[in-house]
Fold:
Amino acid sequence: MRQTLATSAAQFLPDKLTLPALRQAASKCRGCPLWQRGTQTVFGEGPQDADYVLIGEQPGDKEDRTGHPFVGPAGALLDRALADAGLDRSRAYVTNAVKHFKWEPKGKLRIHSKPNRKEIVACLPWLEAEIAVLQPAVIVCLGATAAQSLLGNGFRVMQHRGELITQDDGRVYLATVHPSSILRGNPETRHQELQKFVADLKQVARVLRQQKRAA
Structure:
């Protein structure tokens, strides 16, 4: 099958699953048409023994240009919220459900466009492979795309926001909003929404403390 006809990232996975091998293989992924829009693949980053994993929707404009996840305005807000929640940012692995930036032109700007279900499913093998290598105890889904990728298409973030959900694999999942939604929201309520976000992340900090005491 020609690469241009690929419909999933699965056929681009390396034989041996390691983070360096996955990152290298993902740079050549043609599993969906988004590779033609993005500047480059933006793969996850963080320590292999990360305490927890943060999953967003897709890279933004700055992430697409630099090749690093969560380095734009939403990433800065996330860093602030993690600190306020008592979470060590250096112990997190950050990634996205979709590894290429999907955008539409608006003048000289590149405006975020939500990935569709086919694109999300096509990219899922990368996310599943990252999780398989990392074996995280806690996974934080930032926004609906991330949550539905791992918890099912019918999952509704606002119905289960801040809940600690233990899956059959023993991992704890927590779904909350994506920090970009706070930035896009009403400036008058932004501080309040940030505090709600921090409260959700404090749940993760509490679980990690419990796990360390039990170890």
In short: The mean pLDDT is 95. The beta strands are 52-56, 92-96, 103-106, 109-112, 138-142, 164-166, 172-176. The domain at 8-214 is CATH 3.40.470.10 (Uracil-DNA Glycosylase, subunit E).
